[in-house]
Amino acid sequence: MSDLVAPTPARAGEAPGVAAAAAAAGAVGGGARPAVAELAGETASPPPATFTAVINIKCPDQTGVVAAVAHLLHGYGINIVETDQFTDPSSAVYFQRLKVDYTLMTIGAANTGVMEQALRELAGRYKMEWSITYRNRKQKVAILVSKDDHCLYDLLIRHRSGELDCVVSTIISNHDKLRNVADMFGVPFVHLPIPPKDQGGKRVQEIQIEEILEKESIDLVVLARYMQILTKDFCDKHWQHTINIHHSFLPAFMGAKPYHKAHARGVKIIGATAHYATTDLDAGPIIEQDVTRISHSDSVADMIRKGRDLERLVLARAVRWHLASAVLVEGNKTVVFMS
């Protein structure tokens, strides 16, 4: 590794004449003080670009892995800005999330492939699974909906306000009901009804969805109350980047009408669950859950209203954490480094 390391280049000094111009400006009495760049005959330049990434690591817990990763990054002049780590004592698996700044990487910020190859070699020695997400490109999101609009509105408002760091590229629905919501936020809307079984049924529609995902280079699919059970083919391909919101505190009351089931059971709390959409119905790795209390006087309508509030919040958290590369999956569980 050391043969690839070069001294960090010195930063450019101050432009000639700037300091003298600033001193002269300080001696001028009265009137508005001219900008330094104007006195020096220069145009103020924008701040230099920074390049950041998130590296996620999962491997058997062992001595030296933290030092090895830090040494590798330091050797390339990469600065570790944030780090979170956790060791699961029951499985002896180590998890780490690192946010790094590679702006001053010694081999040049454009040559990340060399650094990635070094990470691959390190991963082989430590039986490590790893991924890297470059933060200078916003991730592209597709939202799938049916008829309920509360989660869709919430995601679009949060995106517009800057809470969700992504590009909402498309909204896809098996119904045409929510097109006006997409138009309101300027997001392309695609209506893909499910054809009858004798014309291919759900799988034909999912192939059309997949064509859009590929064409738009979608990074994350959000099922914002998309009331269709995805096929095994779709889940097997996309579950690691497909988030579903289930209107129940899983694993209880899976499937349809969970609030009716919960009301009939006389529950004292209800919840919402955001999880990755695997082939097991409503049973994928859980990213986030939350609950609220229920009174004996609450009707089904009251429970649905309270549940919708939870669904908005829980789904938004899960999407934000996924976009931040803060979720690591282990089996049917997740480690979430909440930010």
Task: Give a written overview of the molecule.
This protein has 339 residues and is of the alpha/beta class. The protein is built from ten helices and 13 strands. The protein folds into two domains: 130 residues, ACT domain (Alpha-Beta Plaits, 2-Layer Sandwich); 198 residues, 3-Layer(aba) Sandwich (Rossmann fold), CATH 3.40.50. 33% of the residues lie in helices and 25% in strands. Strands 7-6-5-8-9-10-11 form a seven-stranded mixed β-sheet. A four-stranded antiparallel β-sheet has the order 2-3-1-4, with helices on one face. A two-stranded antiparallel ribbon has the order 12-13. Helix 5 links the parallel strand 5 and strand 6. Helix 3 packs antiparallel against helix 4 and helix 5 packs parallel to helix 10. It is globular.
